[in-house]
Amino acid sequence: TQLLEQSPQFLSIQEGENLTVYCNSSSVFSSLQWYRQEPGEGPVLLVTVVTGGEVKKLKRLTFQFGDARKDSSLHITAAQPGDTGLYLCAGVDRGSTLGRLYFGRGTQLTVWP
Amino acid sequence: NAGVTQTPKFQVLKTGQSMTLQCAQDMNHNSMYWYRQDPGMGLRLIYYSASEGTTDKGEVPNGYNVSRLNKREFSLRLESAAPSQTSVYFCAGGPGQVYGYTFGSGTRLTVV
Known about the structure:
The complex is a heterodimer of chains A (113) and B (112). Chain A is mainly beta. Chain A is 0% helix and 55% strand. Chain A is globular, with a radius of gyration of 14 Å. The model of chain A has no long low-confidence stretch (mean pLDDT 91). Chain B contains no helices and eleven strands. Chain B has strands at 4-7, 10-13, 19-25, 31-38, 42-49, 56-57, 64-67, 75-78, 87-96, 100-103, 107-111. In chain B, strands 2, 4, 5, 6, 9, 10 and 11 form a seven-stranded mixed sheet that branches. In chain B, a hairpin with a 3-residue loop joins strand 9 (87-96) and strand 10. Chain B is globular and about 40 Å long. At the A-B interface, strand 4, strand 5 and strand 9 of A face strand 4, strand 5, strand 9 and strand 10 of B.
Protein backbone atom coordinates (compact mmCIF):
# COMPACT_ATOMS: atom_id res chain seq x y z
CA THR A 1 0.00 0.00 0.00
CA GLN A 2 1.40 3.36 -1.06
CA LEU A 3 0.66 5.86 1.67
CA LEU A 4 1.77 8.85 -0.34
CA GLU A 5 0.75 9.46 -3.94
CA GLN A 6 2.86 11.85 -5.94
CA SER A 7 1.84 13.43 -9.20
CA PRO A 8 2.83 13.78 -11.87
CA GLN A 9 5.29 10.93 -12.14
CA PHE A 10 7.17 12.65 -14.97
CA LEU A 11 7.41 16.31 -15.89
CA SER A 12 9.32 17.71 -18.86
CA ILE A 13 9.31 21.48 -19.29
CA GLN A 14 11.21 24.37 -20.84
CA GLU A 15 13.43 26.69 -18.88
CA GLY A 16 11.43 29.59 -17.43
CA GLU A 17 8.16 27.70 -16.97
CA ASN A 18 6.44 27.21 -13.63
CA LEU A 19 5.41 23.83 -12.26
CA THR A 20 3.70 22.21 -9.29
CA VAL A 21 4.23 18.73 -7.86
CA TYR A 22 1.60 17.22 -5.60
CA CYS A 23 1.87 14.78 -2.73
CA ASN A 24 -1.40 13.37 -1.39
CA SER A 25 -2.42 10.88 1.26
CA SER A 26 -5.42 9.72 3.24
CA SER A 27 -3.20 9.55 6.33
CA VAL A 28 -2.26 12.36 8.68
CA PHE A 29 1.45 12.94 9.16
CA SER A 30 3.25 14.74 11.95
CA SER A 31 5.44 16.40 9.33
CA LEU A 32 6.28 16.12 5.68
CA GLN A 33 9.67 16.33 4.05
CA TRP A 34 10.74 17.02 0.47
CA TYR A 35 13.93 15.59 -0.95
CA ARG A 36 15.72 16.02 -4.26
CA GLN A 37 17.80 13.23 -5.73
CA GLU A 38 20.30 13.40 -8.57
CA PRO A 39 21.51 10.37 -10.57
CA GLY A 40 23.96 8.22 -8.64
CA GLU A 41 23.39 10.04 -5.38
CA GLY A 42 21.18 9.71 -2.33
CA PRO A 43 18.22 12.00 -1.64
CA VAL A 44 19.05 15.38 -0.13
CA LEU A 45 16.61 17.13 2.18
CA LEU A 46 15.10 20.36 0.81
CA VAL A 47 12.60 21.24 3.52
CA THR A 48 10.46 19.94 6.36
CA VAL A 49 6.95 21.32 6.92
CA VAL A 50 5.42 20.67 10.31
CA THR A 51 2.33 22.83 10.86
CA GLY A 52 -0.92 22.45 8.92
CA GLY A 53 -1.21 25.30 6.42
CA GLU A 54 2.48 26.08 6.64
CA VAL A 55 4.20 27.63 3.63
CA LYS A 56 7.97 27.66 3.26
CA LYS A 57 10.01 29.31 0.54
CA LEU A 58 13.46 28.31 -0.60
CA LYS A 59 14.49 30.76 -3.32
CA ARG A 60 12.29 29.80 -6.32
CA LEU A 61 10.77 26.78 -4.53
CA THR A 62 7.58 27.12 -2.47
CA PHE A 63 6.40 24.27 -0.26
CA GLN A 64 2.96 24.04 1.28
CA PHE A 65 1.55 21.65 3.88
CA GLY A 66 -2.19 21.08 3.76
CA ASP A 67 -4.38 22.27 6.62
CA ALA A 68 -5.24 18.69 7.55
CA ARG A 69 -1.58 17.59 7.31
CA LYS A 70 -2.45 14.96 4.70
CA ASP A 71 -1.04 16.58 1.58
CA SER A 72 1.66 18.88 0.33
CA SER A 73 2.76 20.66 -2.81
CA LEU A 74 6.01 21.90 -4.26
CA HIS A 75 5.87 24.85 -6.66
CA ILE A 76 8.89 25.93 -8.70
CA THR A 77 8.88 29.34 -10.33
CA ALA A 78 10.89 29.98 -13.50
CA ALA A 79 12.43 26.51 -13.60
CA GLN A 80 16.07 26.18 -14.59
CA PRO A 81 18.03 23.21 -15.99
CA GLY A 82 19.73 22.92 -12.61
CA ASP A 83 16.35 22.01 -11.10
CA THR A 84 16.36 18.73 -13.02
CA GLY A 85 16.15 15.75 -10.70
CA LEU A 86 13.89 13.33 -8.86
CA TYR A 87 11.71 15.05 -6.25
CA LEU A 88 10.49 12.87 -3.40
CA CYS A 89 7.99 13.65 -0.69
CA ALA A 90 8.12 11.74 2.56
CA GLY A 91 5.64 11.72 5.40
CA VAL A 92 6.72 11.23 8.99
CA ASP A 93 4.62 8.63 10.76
CA ARG A 94 2.56 10.38 13.39
CA GLY A 95 2.60 7.33 15.64
CA SER A 96 6.33 6.69 15.45
CA THR A 97 8.72 8.12 18.01
CA LEU A 98 11.52 7.41 15.57
CA GLY A 99 10.10 9.69 12.93
CA ARG A 100 9.79 6.83 10.47
CA LEU A 101 9.44 8.06 6.88
CA TYR A 102 7.07 6.87 4.19
CA PHE A 103 8.13 7.94 0.71
CA GLY A 104 6.11 8.72 -2.37
CA ARG A 105 7.27 7.25 -5.67
CA GLY A 106 8.78 10.50 -6.84
CA THR A 107 8.42 13.03 -9.65
CA GLN A 108 11.13 13.02 -12.29
CA LEU A 109 11.58 16.61 -13.44
CA THR A 110 13.50 17.52 -16.59
CA VAL A 111 14.03 21.17 -17.45
CA TRP A 112 15.27 21.83 -20.97
CA PRO A 113 17.38 24.89 -21.81
CA ASN B 1 33.00 15.66 5.32
CA ALA B 2 30.30 14.76 7.82
CA GLY B 3 27.68 12.35 6.59
CA VAL B 4 26.89 8.76 5.76
CA THR B 5 29.38 6.54 3.96
CA GLN B 6 28.34 3.37 2.15
CA THR B 7 30.54 0.64 0.71
CA PRO B 8 30.76 -0.79 -1.85
CA LYS B 9 29.30 1.55 -4.46
CA PHE B 10 28.69 -1.23 -7.00
CA GLN B 11 28.42 -4.99 -6.64
CA VAL B 12 27.46 -7.92 -8.86
CA LEU B 13 26.49 -11.18 -7.18
CA LYS B 14 25.48 -14.57 -8.43
CA THR B 15 22.22 -16.05 -7.19
CA GLY B 16 22.81 -17.71 -3.83
CA GLN B 17 25.91 -15.74 -2.89
CA SER B 18 26.03 -13.71 0.29
CA MET B 19 27.37 -10.26 1.01
CA THR B 20 27.28 -7.44 3.55
CA LEU B 21 26.65 -3.81 2.71
CA GLN B 22 28.45 -1.48 5.05
CA CYS B 23 27.23 1.89 6.34
CA ALA B 24 28.91 4.31 8.74
CA GLN B 25 27.80 7.74 9.96
CA ASP B 26 29.79 10.40 11.76
CA MET B 27 26.89 12.64 12.78
CA ASN B 28 26.26 11.00 16.17
CA HIS B 29 22.68 10.12 15.22
CA ASN B 30 20.88 7.45 17.19
CA SER B 31 18.60 6.33 14.35
CA MET B 32 19.79 4.59 11.20
CA TYR B 33 17.87 3.10 8.29
CA TRP B 34 18.27 0.87 5.25
CA TYR B 35 16.13 1.53 2.18
CA ARG B 36 15.94 0.00 -1.25
CA GLN B 37 15.00 2.00 -4.32
CA ASP B 38 13.51 0.40 -7.41
CA PRO B 39 12.26 2.14 -10.57
CA GLY B 40 8.75 3.49 -10.08
CA MET B 41 8.59 2.23 -6.48
CA GLY B 42 10.14 5.01 -4.49
CA LEU B 43 12.16 4.21 -1.38
CA ARG B 44 11.03 1.29 0.74
CA LEU B 45 12.25 0.69 4.26
CA ILE B 46 14.02 -2.63 4.86
CA TYR B 47 15.20 -2.33 8.48
CA TYR B 48 15.84 0.41 10.93
CA SER B 49 17.66 0.88 14.22
CA ALA B 50 16.59 3.30 16.92
CA SER B 51 19.82 2.94 18.86
CA GLU B 52 22.92 0.82 19.28
CA GLY B 53 21.97 -2.80 19.75
CA THR B 54 18.35 -2.48 18.59
CA THR B 55 16.86 -3.23 15.19
CA ASP B 56 13.34 -3.51 13.76
CA LYS B 57 11.78 -4.65 10.53
CA GLY B 58 10.47 -2.20 7.98
CA GLU B 59 8.19 -2.76 4.98
CA VAL B 60 10.33 -5.27 3.02
CA PRO B 61 12.63 -7.20 5.43
CA ASN B 62 12.45 -10.66 3.86
CA GLY B 63 15.82 -11.96 2.68
CA TYR B 64 17.82 -9.44 4.70
CA ASN B 65 19.45 -9.21 8.11
CA VAL B 66 21.02 -6.23 9.83
CA SER B 67 23.50 -5.55 12.56
CA ARG B 68 24.00 -2.40 14.67
CA LEU B 69 27.15 -3.14 16.62
CA ASN B 70 27.88 0.44 17.61
CA LYS B 71 26.44 3.91 17.15
CA ARG B 72 28.37 4.61 13.95
CA GLU B 73 27.83 1.45 11.93
CA PHE B 74 24.75 -0.29 10.57
CA SER B 75 25.29 -3.16 8.16
CA LEU B 76 22.86 -4.98 5.85
CA ARG B 77 23.44 -8.64 4.99
CA LEU B 78 22.04 -10.70 2.16
CA GLU B 79 22.46 -14.34 3.14
CA SER B 80 21.42 -15.88 -0.18
CA ALA B 81 21.03 -13.29 -2.90
CA ALA B 82 18.12 -13.51 -5.34
CA PRO B 83 17.53 -11.61 -8.60
CA SER B 84 14.58 -9.85 -6.90
CA GLN B 85 17.13 -8.15 -4.64
CA THR B 86 18.66 -6.31 -7.57
CA SER B 87 18.23 -2.71 -6.50
CA VAL B 88 19.92 0.42 -5.25
CA TYR B 89 20.38 0.36 -1.49
CA PHE B 90 20.57 3.49 0.64
CA CYS B 91 21.59 3.88 4.22
CA ALA B 92 20.38 6.91 6.15
CA GLY B 93 20.83 8.41 9.57
CA GLY B 94 19.15 11.24 11.32
CA PRO B 95 17.34 12.91 14.10
CA GLY B 96 14.17 12.40 12.13
CA GLN B 97 11.02 14.39 12.25
CA VAL B 98 12.10 18.00 11.93
CA TYR B 99 15.69 17.96 10.75
CA GLY B 100 15.38 15.21 8.20
CA TYR B 101 17.67 12.39 7.27
CA THR B 102 21.11 12.23 5.68
CA PHE B 103 21.48 9.57 3.03
CA GLY B 104 24.56 7.83 1.75
CA SER B 105 25.30 7.79 -1.96
CA GLY B 106 23.98 4.25 -2.37
CA THR B 107 25.10 0.76 -3.35
CA ARG B 108 23.96 -0.45 -6.75
CA LEU B 109 23.55 -4.23 -6.46
CA THR B 110 22.90 -6.59 -9.35
CA VAL B 111 22.10 -10.24 -8.73
CA VAL B 112 22.45 -12.48 -11.79
